[in-house]
Amino acid sequence: MSEVRAIIWDLQRSVNEALVQAGAVPKVITIDVSPELAVLASAILRCSVKSESAERIPSESQLLAKLTKHRDEWMKILERVRPVRGDSQPAAG
Questions:
Q1: Does pTM surpass 0.70?
Q2: Are residues 47 and 17 part of one domain?
Q3: What is the pLDDT of residues 24-51, one digit of tens each?
């Protein structure tokens, strides 16, 4: 799954680079953390764990705080695994 995220991030960066070269302003240049993202993360976690582990999933407010706190680290991870064009393997970091 991280390879898919890396490919999507690479596409986003390529679009932004092309916009900048054309003199336009990129529309999305970062990952926005919102309450909706926390709700989505909670739903994904609840669908991904066994029922006996569900009680260990943080609340949506806790998830929002953690997502906000670690957003910059996540962006660095996405940058590090960005694939080289034409290569299906993540770029070395």
A1: no
A2: no
A3: 887 766 677 889 888 988 998 889 889 9
